[in-house]
Amino acid sequence: MNIRIREMRENSHLYQRQLAEYLHCTQQTYSRYETGELQPSLLVMERLADFYDTSVDFLMGLTDEKKPHKRSHKRMDL
User: Fold this and answer.
1) CB count in 10 Å sphere of residue 27
2) What confidence tens digit (pLDDT) does each residue in 10-41 have?
3) Where are the domains of the chain?
4) What would the pLDDT profile of 43-52 be if each residue is shown by its tens digit?
5) For residue 11, which of 54, 69, 63 has the smallest C-alpha distance?
């Protein structure tokens, strides 16, 4: 996952500082996500997926399909 989020940032010609600002964290924290020293929360992963218009599965390396499936925002009551 850390390699994929680094590749996405570099391919978008962005600095770690810019993503850190978007995520409301420090540049050092974001750097630790990219090195694998720190695992981002699900909320951070969702925000990155939205930012890059992809899926959390893609960022985590669970799929190579970059374009996300259409999401349903309907909440299911249990």
Assistant:
1) 14
2) 999 999 999 999 999 999 999 999 999 999 99
3) 2-60
4) 999 999 999 9
5) 54
Is 80 exceeded by the pLDDT of residue 73?
Answer: no
Nearest of 8, 4, 22 to residue 52 by alpha carbon: 8
pTM, full prediction: 0.81
Q: Which CATH class is domain 2-60?
A: mainly alpha
Question: Is a pLDDT exceeding 80 seen at residue 74?
Answer: no
Output the 3-class SS for the chain.
CHHHHHHHHHHCCCCHHHHHHHHCCCHHHHHHHHHCCCCCCHHHHHHHHHHHCCCHHHHHCCCCCCCCCCCCCCCCCC
CA distance 21 to 78: 37
